[in-house]
Design brief:
mainly alpha, Rossmann fold, 3-stranded parallel sheet, two-stranded parallel sheet
Length: about 170
Amino acid sequence: MSPAYVETGLFVKSYIEEPDSKEADSILRRLGTPFVFSHFHEIEIPNAIRLKRFRREITRAQETAALRAFAADVDAGRFARPAYDLGAVFIRAEQLSARHSGDMGTRSLDLLHVAAALETGCDVFASFDSRQRKAAALAGLEIIPRDGGPAGKGAIRKAKCEESHRNRQ
């Protein structure tokens, strides 16, 4: 398989149990390590885990365990930062924004991930986020999973996560 870039949300599903975590784990196993580790992953993965506690989706103990597991994976070499020009990522993200954001509503960080994938030489982009997937496809990246994953669109996933959270209370 060609080099793949995995977006943050898919990684987080491997540290925090969510409705589509099994599919995320399956994708990560198929891709194998080391995973491309951009500067955006470095802050966004731990921050996404912390936000889950803030939103009361997980407990402090779950947050701590997830952050430790992520740090252990980084220390074990499961993530590797390829050489790339961070400035070029921002230039590419602005170009993508100019082409697509007005029509698609893509968020800046989504575009930065797509641009980082392109600048690191990846041919494959793994995500469950529909807008991010669309931007990556328009940028010429192969998208996995091909069907958008078990939850399909982000709103459906969010509803499932909220339902799961309510059931834990």
